[in-house]
Design goal:
CATH topology of the largest domain: Butyryl-CoA Dehydrogenase, subunit A, domain 3
Structural class: alpha+beta
Number of strands: 10
Distance between the termini: 25 Å
Oligomer: single chain
Strand content: 15-25%
CATH class of the largest domain: Mainly Alpha
């Protein structure tokens, strides 16, 4: 498979790398410690066109492709995975959802503020009793002739507090399971909508993850996304894009682990020589490099299929499944290479380990990815 990038894509990749190193790296430790959202940096990301990567120019976006988005998320996540996940959710799920399923009126109303950074987008489907089982959501909606009225509690919402616009899923009747779910575009200012508890997380700490509470939240009739009852289908399709984004985030984290390990191994001395000369260290670095490249192959293949409009469910799940494991394994190896120093906050590998773990959980756990892959393969027999 040919992964030769265009000059434009290479420029985008380089721009993202430089932005991450110059704008995100200087205060990343402070933001991680204080759980501070990088509002200032997001304004600059909007100026670069990174808030509307796949949004057509006619709606205020940059008009780039899915591979460009993957390269941006990968490079940003190499320095700051918190920003990487916000970019992924904003672009692939929120902008992507409105672009793929929205009416022309919805696209005109919401894509421009999202693409230009006026507002950040979020995606909300999980609930206290519904995580992997998205058909089990219990947030309910009813229609009063003019508005949909939503009641319930949502959980684990990336950018829950920082967002202005949300794609949110509710059910007409929990007993209907898949067929009862619809998707809605929610504005933060809607009556009956409020942000609840902000979670205190192990990693990805400068990205806020929050509870959302809907108490007679009035949503205009025209803010339903797609048709009534299409919510489950919409969620599944959008999650393919989301999983590609998280795979890119994971590879970015793994690449950071590799680069930090190589640098440290070439500087640290034990027994009178640099530890880079020890075969045990060389083996770890060789394994990391090989697995990262294998992950990139799965990631880029999934992005290419998505860009072509082809079914990429299996490829997206394979990429997310494998790349998230590579991120976690690479972070563990990086801490081991750094020894006792790797366990201290003086070195970034401690944060890489905390940031890596969530990639095996959100946008579908590792177990769910294996289930998706197996079911699709067995179905085809």
């Amino acid at each position: 498979m040919d992964f030769d990038f265009s000059d434009e894509q290479l420029l985008i990749k380089q721009t993202a790398r430089e932005f991450a190193e110059e704008e995100l790296a200087p205060d990343i430790e402070e933001r991680d410690k204080n759980q501070t959202f990088p509002y200032r940096q997001f304004k600059k990301l909007a100026e670069l066109g990174f808030m509307g990567v796949i949004v057509p120019e006619k709606y205020g976006g940059a008009g780039m492709d899915m591979m460009s988005l993957v390269l941006i998320i990968e490079e940003i996540s190499r320095i700051d995975p918190s920003v990487g996940v916000v970019l992924s959710v904003h672009n692939s799920l929120t902008c992507g959802g409105i672009l793929e399923f929205g009416t022309e009126e919805q696209k005109k109303k919401y894509l421009e503020p999202l693409a230009t950074g006026v507002g950040i987008g979020a995606y909300s489907i999980s609930e206290p009793e519904a995580g992997s089982d998205i058909a089990g959501i219990r947030t309910r909606y009813k229609f009063d002739g003019n508005h949909f009225i939503l009641n319930g509690t949502k959980m684990w919402v990336t950018s829950g507090n920082s967002a202005s616009y949300y794609i949110l899923f509710a059910t007409k009747d929990p007993d209907l399971r898949h067929s009862g779910i619809s998707a809605f575009i929610i504005e933060k200012t809607f009556s009956g909508f409020k942000v609840g508890k902000k979670e205190n997380k192990l990693g990805i700490r400068s990205s806020d993850t929050c509870e959302l509470v809907l108490e007679d939240c009035y949503v205009p009739e025209e803010n339903i996304l797609g048709k009534e009852g299409d919510g489950f289908k919409i969620a599944v399709i959008l999650l393919n894009s989301g999983r590609i984004g998280i795979a890119a985030q994971a590879i970015g984290i793994a690449q950071a682990c590799l680069e930090s390990s190589v640098k440290y191994a070439q500087e640290r001395k034990q027994f009178g020589r640099k530890i880079a000369s020890f075969q045990a260290i060389q083996n770890k670095i060789a394994d990391m490099a090989t697995e990262i490249d294998a992950g990139r192959f799965l990631l880029y293949r999934a992005a290419m299929k998505k860009e072509k409009g082809e079914d990429c469910a299996v490829e997206a799940s394979m990429a997310k499944y494998f790349c998230s494991q590579v991120a976690v394994k690479s972070s563990i190896q990086a801490v081991q290479i750094h020894g006792g120093y790797g366990y201290l906050k003086d070195f970034p590998v401690e944060r890489y380990m905390r940031d890596a773990k969530i990639t095996e959980i959100y946008e579908g756990t590792t177990e769910i990815q294996r289930l998706v892959i197996a079911r699709n393969l067995l179905k085809s027999k």
